[in-house]
Amino acid sequence: MSGTSGKRKQKVKWSKLYTFACLRPNTTDVAPTQHLLGQQGFSRVVFCNEPHLHKCKPHKYPNNYVSTTKYNLLTFLPRALLEQFCRVANLYFLLAAALSVTPLAPFTPISLIAPLVFVVGISMLKEAVEDWHRFLQDRNVNSRKVKVHVGNGLFVQKFWEALCVGDVVKVSKNEYFPSDLLLLSSSYEDGVCYVETMNLDGETNLKAKRSLEATLGLDDDEELSRFKGTIRCEDPNSNLYTFVGNLEFINESYPLSPTQILLRDSKLRNTEYIYGVVIFSGPDTKAVRNSTRAPSKRSKVERKMDHVIYVLFAMMVLISSISATGSALYTESGKDKRWYLRLHENVDNLFDPSEPEISGFLQFIRSLILYGYLIPISLYVSIEIVKVLQAMLINKDLGMYDEITGKTVEARTSNLNEELGQVEMILSDKTGTLTCNQMEFRKCSIEGISYGGEVNDVDLAASQRMNIDVERYRFSLDGSDSTGRSIEMLDLSTADASIEKEVLGCNHGSEDPKVGNSRISITGKESIIKGFNFRDDRLMDKMWIYRSNVSDMVTFFRVMALCHTGIPVEDDQSDRIKYEAESPEEVAFLIAAQEFGFKFCERTQSTMVLRELDPSSGLVVKREYKLLNLLEFNSSRKRMSVIVSNEAGEIFLFCKGADEVIFERLADNGRTYQQATTMHLSNYAEDGLRTLVFAYKRIGLSEYEHWNSMFIKVKSTISSEREELLENASEMIEKDLLLLGSVAVEDKLQKGVPECIDKLAQAGLKIWLLTGDKKETAINIGYACSLLRQDMKQLHLKLSTKTESNHQVKDVKEEILQQVESYNQMIIQEDRKDTPFALVVDGKALEISLSSNLKHQFFSLALNCDVVICCRVSPKQKALITRLAKQHSGKTILAIGDGANDVGMIQEADIGVGISGMEGMQAVMASDFSLPQFRFLERLLIVHGHWCYRRISKMILYFVYKNIAFGLTLFYYDIYTGFSGQDLYDDWYMVMFNVLLTSLPVISLGVIEQDVSSDVCLQFPALYQQGQKNICFSWKRIIGWIINGILASLAIFTLIIYILSPAGFDQEGNVADIEHIGTITYTCIIWTVNCQIALMISHFTWVSHFVIWGSILCWYIFLFLYGLLPPRYSRNVFGIFTEAIGRAPMYWIVTLLVVVVSLLPYLIHITIQRSFYPMDDHVIQEIKRYRRDITDSPSWLREQEKSKKMTQIGFSARVDAKIIHLKEQLHHKRKSMYLSLTNSPIYKTVIRREITPQS
């Protein structure tokens, strides 16, 4: 819309639709704080439309650039180096590298410095790459464009980062606000605009904002060229819901309130455009102030790995102490016996007989360097490389690609890959995380008859397992339509009978039992019409006009089409009208009304126009209704009403609201369908649907005029009691209503959410739901996604109305404590296996429960429940719950959300997951992993989490094994040579061991190893519990691999020494010297550790074979080439392979013998374990190996069932509970039928006749 020409204003001023003053700023609230302006904390001054004045002090403010990076060009090198040398192993090798230039070093400096530089360099490179990705995401946000006023009424596109305080901007519909803005005007004449703040507070309802009346004239690009003003306000802070300031404009001062403030990362909706001036920019905005720097997170495995390093370091100190003590004693005792060493003539501090203590100490330092290979220097860098490669494979997994959005999973950090396999609790947001922010009309109850079908996915699954027709079964058991008319009951029964085969899946001609049923609204099925997923041939296609008592149906549809705040929007592509409204439920109702033949097509300030289907003629007629009053919906009223008059002058009140609110306002003659409607509401709620009740009344002209005159008088009242008086006035008219029925809409779940939760529950994870929505909505979603089930005991933690109104802190705490203790006692007394518990906590009770006095008792209760649902939770409370849950449970916690209000929770959790949905990127940018939809969490955890945990665990254990097997041979040789501190291997052998000859196989193990395939992981979710129990990286396993390494080193060194020492080495009878012994020992170690990793691998690929056998081949190639170098470079190993050991058969025989013996302990262990104590993955591997999953399908299915953890939540558990419930109902029905039969006169007569002849 061009701003330079006269703009076309919207027809409807939404603020005037309301009779309550919900949109006008309450100036009495801000007045008491105006005296604070200019004082500390309230010193900000903004010169509107004059950003150049903010280029210098004292009014210089930061620009709009926002950064989430960890480093910059100046800080990268010092900070990254500091982080690397905070690791104990790196710090040790830095010290060893420094000592390598001294005479104490047993190796040349290059052999210690080169690996250290390589390891630290790779780790720093990985940090730089990850921070670069953060920078690129920041750039995407900072590069968004917005129209900015540059003078003379000209607006140009600028990047967000270029905005300055004082800039005037123009934001269009469905765009995000780039900064915190003061609203000047909008496309509506009265300065109203509608804002979606879901990205900030998680609420889906639109918030109405209104500009000051003084700035309403600034509604054109040219008008802005003359705009000058000064804003004096509070300093930057993190409070989203308060603002103190005033605007000095045209020699007047106007108080400002949060009603005029538009916050960064909220979105403009239902408004063509707005003009605003930047108050806070970049790091000063409230959204950014609410976010924090991403904390440094380390996985449990990595933290435990530090303790393993400490153990290895202690082992190194121990053997160094043994070497030093042995050297001192050996030097002192052998000074006369070993005269040929001439220790007195050639004084060496390491072997000074006169000062054995000093010699021992120097030998200790030398031994610390010599045995440094016990500490795996390449472990950290190998894990860094492996984690990056794992993250790349996760990012490329097509199983987590969302075709609709074109997005895939993104591992934003690779530090926590293995932590994905150890998650025990999930804390989830609701809106945008479990749901997709869309409402669908699903069912309705009119005059006690339910439409839209009764069957959901749970019913269908139960019906197939029980081989019954659940829909007709429900009808026959609960008698839900018993209050309806007999003709309707007959019709319903007939309809049920006609679809019996389809529900039961008996129609073999159709693969899907749901197909063809015109009565069933399928939960998981995509609707053809957005917002409308209703199927029932009794109402669709104008069939409702043939029902009895059509007049009530017409009234029902009129309530749906008239009782709302929506505005029609023409759709050029179809004959259907689109709608915009404050809440998505209203949009769903308007779409449904349109499908039923009541199209809401026009709205003015005082009229509403419908195109109605006339049941008498079957034609569509246009009818105009005069809108007399609109009584809005809010959290305290829980209802909404409109008062309209039709063309005949009849006045009606149409009302919709919560069932308990409407039922208590019904007239005595208006409760005809209350019992049946209540039962339908219960069924709808169990299906996870949101419900509202419709009612109406006809108002006489005199009654209305009397009430309206009083209402107008109340509206003109200016006092603190105004809202209460308005509420009392509405109560006077909203009474003696006639019940019409109810409607049910679905807060549409994202695809696959119930199935994902079911699989996660079977894997042993607990799920808590944290939402800013009200309790009723949260419970409905709990049912919809199968967190709650029918037989689950719900423990509601809330404040009573009396206690809440008293405002006595002591009474409030006592009430909450009493409830918590009683619930805890109830759980103890009940049988936990058979009785599931759900804890539902509202916002005020939660605030009290999280206080220091009650949090221990609260979390004790929460952790004993199967599911916890927290309602009305603020962003700070989400973060606090996450932190306290970690502290009290000690479990690994994953938090998942999609909005800025979830950032604190995401950052506090051990693993934070952001949903990259339709909203902003705050949650994603703060997360460790991002997903397109919630359902991909199943594959991320159960498949990739399980794999990564096992891979990293195996990697660390293998590193411990190979470094002990290698390092201890140096210790044995030191003992063998009289504690001389002599090194056994050439310096280049030492360098090549970790850098080349054993590095690639362990990397392949960490990247592509699989104990089972991804499909099997999903079929056997209980395999995930290996990570939760930390089976693969327990101290038992760690000690076992240390022992395995010790045994391997002993076998290698002992066999080689005692085979080669006493006999000739080759055909000429030459005895093996130190270089021969060292090279042969090294060869055996290379073969042993590479064959060991081959035995550890379950999933072989060509890559595995290539790197394992290639590493062994590389050793021979290196040995060959190294031996060809001139003696100046190759020194004592010149020609050693071609001229010495390579020609000797003994070399090859010893290698084969030593490798077999050194691997024998592991082979014996794994044989015993798999034969007598197999783990779950061992059993599955055997089944897959012998293809029993194909040849013996029942056995495979039986193993699947055995692997599932018994859980109280999830779709499967809900189906099981439904079957138990239906069986109990069936039993009671049969029992009552039997009693009715036996008590009937006919039965007694028959029995009497049978007894009489016998007598």
Helix- and strand-based class? alpha+beta
Report the mean per-residue pLDDT as an integer.
Answer: 82
How much of the sequence lies in strands comes to: 15-25%
- Bulk shape: globular
Strand order of the largest sheet: 16-35-34-33-17-29-32-31-30
How many β-strands, per DSSP?
35
Strand and helix map with partners:
Blueprint: H1 27-30, E1 44-48, H2 76-84, H3 88-99, H4 109-142, E2 145-151, E3 154-159, E4 168-172, E5 180-186, E6 192-196, H5 198-201, E7 207-210, H6 221-224, E8 229-233, E9 245-249, E10 252-256, E11 261-262, E12 267-269, E13 273-280, H7 286-290, H8 300-333, H9 356-370, H10 377-395, E14 401-402, E15 407-408, E16 410-411, E17 425-428, E18 435-446, E19 449-451, H11 457-466, H12 470-478, H13 486-498, H14 500-504, H15 550-562, E20 567-569, E21 578-580, H16 584-595, E22 598-603, E23 607-613, E24 620-631, E25 639-645, E26 651-657, H17 659-663, H18 674-686, E27 690-699, H19 701-715, H20 722-733, E28 738-749, H21 753-762, E29 766-770, H22 775-784, E30 793-797, H23 801-806, H24 809-829, E31 837-841, H25 843-849, H26 855-864, E32 867-870, H27 875-889, E33 893-897, H28 903-908, E34 911-915, H29 922-926, E35 929-931, H30 936-976, H31 987-997, H32 999-1008, H33 1014-1019, H34 1025-1028, H35 1035-1060, H36 1074-1096, H37 1102-1124, H38 1127-1130, H39 1136-1139, H40 1145-1172, H41 1176-1185, H42 1188-1191, H43 1193-1203, H44 1211-1238, H45 1241-1254
Helix pairs in contact: 2-4, 3-4, 4-10, 4-31, 8-9, 8-30, 10-30, 10-32, 11-44, 15-16, 19-20, 21-30, 24-26, 26-27, 30-32, 30-35, 30-36, 32-37, 35-36, 35-40, 36-37, 36-40
